[in-house]
Every structure is written in structure tokens, then in C-alpha cells.
Amino acid sequence: MAVPILAQVLAIEVVMGERIDRCLAQQLPTISRSRLVKLIEQGQVKLNGQICTAKKTTVREGDRLHLTIPSPQPLNLQPEPIPLDILYEDEFLIIINKPPGLVVHPAPGHATGTLVHALLFHCADLAGIGDILRPGIVHRLDKDTSGALVVAKTELAHQHLQAQLKAKTAKREYLAVVHGVPAESSGKIDLPIGRHPVERQKMAVVSQAKGGRAAVTHWQILERLGKYTLMQFRLETGRTHQIRVHSSYIGHPIVADPVYSSGGSLGVNLPGQVLHAHKLTLNHPVSGEIIEAIAPLPPHFLKLLHKLRIVHC
């Protein structure tokens, strides 16, 4: 019989005056700032015994804060026996080589058949870790982007892994085939990304004054293939569609991207953008050891490279 997980109550004494959300973020580095803000808004924070729901409230030296982390909510999603390509697994986390076409978590139009449903079947205790519809999910990959993705199996691991992404100590490297050949062999794209001002289903380079969030992508040419290029991308931030938006903005959209590229599939049956999360490097949330997971390229990616090398060698 499973033992119920009780809510946690954390007591904090303020040592200097500042906004309440910033104070909590500094005192609790393993909990993401966004989650702390949600807990404040949900009435889970007390300031000197009184519930505080305003994240901009100023706290002063000597104030006392009590933060309640609620017990996990029951999950109504049904586990599904979907095969998983596992790159690494222990009692704290699991790293999956996600195939293209698999949606990471439930969303409108994808109520079943997601990676979360597969994980719930594979990991009996995953329910309740983090978001109720995204249990254990630390980061995500677009539906048609393949490759390495880490999932936490405990609340502590979830908080620790999210903190690594926030602190940029976790490294995510991608491979992609793009249109055209950049003039330089490597570079850095530092352009904010936000919701497209007109086409709301798309993201775009948007100034921070208009709601864009800082986004940094490092790139390097691995192989020139005639009118195409095999590129390596390294994320410094993790905005929605970041690589796809940045590469398109600099004039080298990813091949077969249905949203940000107008080019064809080059005669190869491609499921979507030729973008693959090739390597994920992180520190184990408990042992601290470095874990490097490498996801092999999917068949369609290999087939495209083979064809381009034959045509353009």
C-alpha cells in the first residue's frame, strides 16, 4: 500500500528587504521562480502569519515566511503501454530518446497517446511530481523534434533538475539540417523570443519591450552539404521553438519545418523539422555525478544525410 505524501511547510526568516518572490527564490534555489510565484498566488505563503498572494509585496529583515508545498494531486490520466527508448534510468530520473511524432504531455487535441501516458505505465510512482498534467516533466521537446529528454521520478529530483536548467549548468545540444550555408563557421544568436504578434500559434523574435523573453542559441557548422548544412545548436535558454525561430530568423530555417520554413522535404519522407536533441549533460540530483546521454539519430535523419552526401559530395 502506497504511503500518502504529505504537504511540506517551510519556515524562512527574512535577512534583508526585497520582494517576496525574490526572497523565496534566493532562499529556495531548488524550486523554480515560476513555481514559487504560483504558490504565492494560490495562497500557500504566509507573511508573519497572514496569507500573502501578491508576489511584489516587500518583506523586511526579521519578517517570517511560511511556505506550504501542497501534497501531490491525484492524477486521472490513464497509463498506456507505449514503448520507450530509454537512454538512462535509476530511482530518481529517466532519460528518454523521444521519437518524432510523440507529444510530450496532454494538451488540446492530444488527450491520449502522449509521453506522459507512457511514463505513467513505466513509472508507477510518477503521478503527482510537478504539474498535474505534466508529472515529472522537466523540459519538453516539440512533437516532431526527436531526442534526449529527462524526466524526474521524485519531487526532489524535479526541483533539482529544473534548477540546473535555470542556472544553465545542464547542457542541451541539438543537431539539425538547415537550408543554406552560413558565411561563418560558428556563432551566437542573442535575440528575445515571444508570441508572434499576428499569428498567435507561432513564436517570433520579439523585443523585450513587447513581451519577448531573453533567448540565446549557440551554433556551429558540422558539415556543408551543397545548399544545405548540418548544424549543431546549443541552448543557453529554453524558449518555445527557440532553435526553429532563431535559425529561421538568420535566414537558415530547418529543413521540413512546417511552421518556420517554406522548403520541401528533399524527396525523403520526413515527419517534420529535421531537429534532434542529440546530447543531454546534467548533474545527478542526488549523487552529483555527471550524466551524459547521447540519443542516436532517427532513421529519417540518417536517410536525409545519406542522400545529401551522395548528391553533393
UniProtKB/TrEMBL annotation:
Active site: residue positions: 142
Catalytic activity: a uridine in RNA = a pseudouridine in RNA
Gene3D superfamilies to which the protein is assigned, alphabetical: Pseudouridine synthase, RNA-binding S4 domain
Keywords: Isomerase, RNA-binding
Leader sequence segment: none
Transferase among keywords: no
UniProt xrefs under Pfam families: PseudoU_synth_2, S4
InterPro entries attached to this UniProt entry: PsdUridine_synth_cat_dom_sf, PsdUridine_synth_RluA-like_CS, PsdUridine_synth_RluC/D, PsdUridine_synth_RsuA/RluA, RluA_PseudoU_synthase, S4_RNA-bd, S4_RNA-bd_sf
One example of a Gene Ontology biological process annotation: enzyme-directed rRNA pseudouridine synthesis
EC numbers on record: 5.4.99.-
A Gene Ontology molecular function term of the record: rRNA pseudouridine synthase activity
Top EC class of this enzyme: isomerase
CDD domains assigned to the protein according to its UniProt record, in alphabetical order: PseudoU_synth_RluA_like, S4
Ranges for domain RNA-binding S4: 18-78
Superkingdom of source: Bacteria
Family of the protein in this entry: Belongs to the pseudouridine synthase RluA family.
Task of the protein: Responsible for synthesis of pseudouridine from uracil.
Record-linked PANTHER family: MITOCHONDRIAL RNA PSEUDOURIDINE SYNTHASE (PTHR21600), RIBOSOMAL LARGE SUBUNIT PSEUDOURIDINE SYNTHASE D (PTHR21600:SF44)
Full protein name: Pseudouridine synthase
Organism encoding this protein: Gomphosphaeria aponina SAG 52.96 = DSM 107014
